[in-house]
Amino acid sequence: MKKSKLLFNHFPKKQLKISSVFLKRWIFDVLSKEGYSLSCIVYNFTDDEHLLQINRQFLNHHDYTDIITFDYSSNRAIEGEIFISTERVIDNARNNAVSVEEEFLRVIIHGILHLCGYRDKTKKEQSIIRQKENEYIQYFFNHINPKSMKKKKSDSKKTFSYRPESLMMSYGYQPELSVGAIKCPIYQTSTFVFQTAEEGKAFFELAYGQREKKPKEEVGLIYSRLNNPDIEILEDRLTLWDEAEAAAVFESGMAAISTVFFELLQPGDVFLYSAPLYGGTEHFINHVLNKFNIRGFQFNHHHKEKDIIQIIQQQNLKDKLKLIYIETPSNPSNTLIDIEMCRKIADYFSTKNNKIVVAVDNTYLGPLWQHPVKHGADLVVYSATKYIGGHSDLIAGACVGRSDLIKRIKTLRSFLGNMAGPWTGWLLLRSLETLKVRMEQQAQNAIKIAQYLNTHPKIEKVLYLGLLDKKDPQYKIYKKQSHSPGAMLSFYIKGNEKAAFKFLNNLKLIHLAVSLGSTESLAEHPATMTHASVPYEEKILYGITDNMIRLSVGIENVDDLIEDIKEALEKI
Ligand SMILES: Cc1ncc(COP(=O)(O)O)c(C=O)c1O
Q1: Same domain, 493 and 565
Q2: Which domain holds residue 516?
């Protein structure tokens, strides 16, 4: 099959600050909407004098014009040559009081419409072609050029006042580009076809950071390890909950976390981290990063700002500090770290050439109940396996935050190859639609279960944000940075490991499994399961004892859950 060609000669880059990639996509769409295919179109941008010459020589006309079209099409395969006077387009823009870009779009699409058989001799023909031009220019601004689309959205208060839960079904997806399908298709493809070699070259230059983006230029689709429509739409939607500038999706929470560490730290660097952390992160810090001579210094919720500053000052490490990494609330103790305090510490040590990054693992409260960016975090990481996925049927991770950092993180992701696949991306898009209703139901159930456990004679203590004492300094942090006590609770059974195991083994409705944030309730034993690799002294320090149970509350009927807990406790 003959390859279709669309070429621009002497493209007026200075005046027309729209990437030719968008223009090409637009022209292809217009042709297919008009029922034609592209064989070969060559645009020649030239000056008035040259256009007049062509007009005289080939058409025996003597007027100045802005465009001349030569039509060599056969049947519905469009072939032609279009000459445009750059000078005249700029003049017309001034005379018609429209932007130069809009006038260029008008004349570019005018040429295409001519090739599709539209004429402009009579008044009626002129009005029809004008109407078509307007329709397609609108289409360009609404659907083809994402930058101008964003501009339009931020200009329009109405779109931006929609809450994330209202946008989860539509944001970033245009049904018109996918045969009207209301849901985004699964782009189960490894690679994407380039229209031209020049386009492929331009995409790679941007993807590999070989040059800066031109105004309004976007990285095109290349290869699914680098980008894929399902993942891009998902990333756009994930930014909404946290009001973050950008997002990157990974094949697991640990992939997101390890990529953040590797991008921000080099051998010799140090970082501060809160404890306790999820066992996998703790293992990565102490058994992987240390192999690269990257050292972490631990602090916890008892440390005040000055104590944490001292950890670094005492060791004279201020020049080597690059990152403050925290998990709040912590898994499994539900202790809180003040995000604003971490920002202050980062700013205290930051210099002109060393801006210390604050990263927060927000898995425990998920994107609904805590927004670390608003409290000064640069990056927020998630195990998307948890609330974001929410159905215990996938493994994924995400990082949202400052666009300059996300850009770096995405570049490393391309080379580590730990990008989520399209199927996972699609499942997450589906999950996000119900994120809010799921999480709200989970929290409502958790509050009732925490209250039940709190008065149960066989329970020593319940660790749940909703039960914090108002005099506890943690309460102040909770009120400042969290919107809900969440759906994760830990509790101590009176007894030892045997009693804890007996309880777990007798649960019927609640599943005995690690992970959290899903529709079904899950219970586990942190000391021997999720936090098994945490050193014994640290387990004791952070209360990860043999009689501790961690419960992730789901969306089941809360009375059924309480009945299940009651019966299992009776068996001890
Ligand atoms: C707080 C927290 N962060 C990160 C992770 C790691 O996520 P993943 O299992 O998706 O790699 C987990 C997993 O349990 C977690 O609980």
Answers
A1: yes
A2: 436-570
